[in-house]
Amino acid sequence: MPLTDLGRYLTGVVTIEASGPTVERFINLCMTRGIGLWEIRWRRGRIQAHMAVRDFFRLRPLARQTRTRVRVRRRWGLPFLWGRARRRKVLLAGVLAFLLTAYAASQFVWFVEVRGTKELQPAQVREAAAALGLRPGTYRAGVDVDALERSLRAQLGETSAVLIRFVGTRAIIQVVERTLPPPDRGQHDPADLVALRPGRVKTLAVYMGLPEVGEGDLVEAGQVLVRGLLAPGVGRGALELRPDEAVPVRARGLVKAETWRDVYVEVPLLQQVRRPNGRRVTRYELKWGRRDIIMPGRSVDTGSYQVDRRVWPLLTGRILGGPVEWVETTFTGMDVEPARLSPERATQAAEAAVVEAVRQGLAPRAEIQGVSRQVVWQTAQGMGIRFLVTIQEDIAVPRPAEARPQPAPTATP
Predict the structure, then answer these.
(1) What is the pTM of this model?
(2) Domains in the chain, ordered, with CATH?
(3) Among 14, 56, 128, 404, which is least packed by CB within 10 angstroms?
(4) What is the CB neighbour count within 10 angstroms for residue 39?
């Protein structure tokens, strides 16, 4: 809640209705005398406005001077709420007792939750925690969290890490089981490096295997770039020279190539734009579990609004049937107006969106080298644009080596 609205609520606010032959002069006199009025609205020749309670009694001489009739339509704020509560002492005492009981109950642990278990059973963790003193009904401030974590870690085994934290009336035990990752399979099996997608090779660095392409070559998707073989000879064609002495290996290398992404988009030139129109309504509500208690205030008229919501937690946990939160919702009125984009601006916006979409799908070290575009069609309502994004990236991916024919045995005389 903004500090201005909170201050007004604490001091009290009244909604007045002023009518008379010179009501405009009455409003002007209020402004000159320092009497604050806000949310002034005309309704059928009358004026409605909000004002502070402390300024209300200063209106009498101004109303007499301008022959204006002033009526109070609504009273709201803490002073009026307190006045009604004083007349209901039993209800006030019940509310205070309820709040004190809720606060006292929130200092205890009522639920123990276990997270992160894989091999261990949650019931096993809860039993171990209960034996060490953490169970429903435990006073939260009396729990030594560090000592409890060490004891639980010792009971559950050296391969487990334990973290305990409190959220409202819940104690959450986070268990991290230290398991060894499964052994990688196939990391040393013979394999070739093939092209992930078509492109033009720009940089070729072979660490293991025989190169099948060179810098400047055009390659297709799936084409072998580095053969997973070691054989006498250097360069391409070594496999054909001495296939009988080739040794299968897992090819390793870096093959950077220039690749392309062809993207077609259609951009409307007539769009709907939302602009604020000055209307603004703030609504406050008390959220208690699944129940919403809306505070009295201005109603929200029909129309288009931008909704901003802020939440302040008051009480957490389930002891009251759910968390208690104070919610402020601001409705800002918006007018939807048609707007026409120029072809240049529409093209720039589409290009930025295409580049961002392509970048999201690239590997970390891939780079966008350039973007070319071609307008396919254009009318008064929109246009179709084809973008060609040039990228430099590593296109080499491993593929299990294919079975190769063995040389036929020679007959001995």
Answers:
(1) 0.44
(2) 3-82 (3.30.70.260), 108-177 (3.10.20.310), 191-252 (no CATH), 264-269+341-398 (no CATH), 273-337 (no CATH)
(3) 404
(4) 12
